[in-house]
Request: fold
Amino acid sequence: MDYKKGSEVLPARLLKEIQEYVEGSLLYIPKKTSKASWGSKSGARQLIDRRNSTINTLFERGVSIADLAEQYHLGEDTVRKIVYRRK
Reply:
């Protein structure tokens, strides 16, 4: 986060208006753009979604949770969360 002096970056009329609400305090002004969801830029979210879909398919075909956990290097509790999660 970058700190800037309000009097250096804001027009005088806007600074006076802000001082009506907050004076002598730090004020956070969020960015205009919203933050991208986790993994959306790198593609990690899509990879995990595909993996989970495959795990669900294999489970429906009768592969045990223990076998899926070993095959995908996950804990059995994690595999249970994947296969029993409501869709």
Summary: Helices lie at 6-9, 12-19, 44-60, 65-72, 76-84.
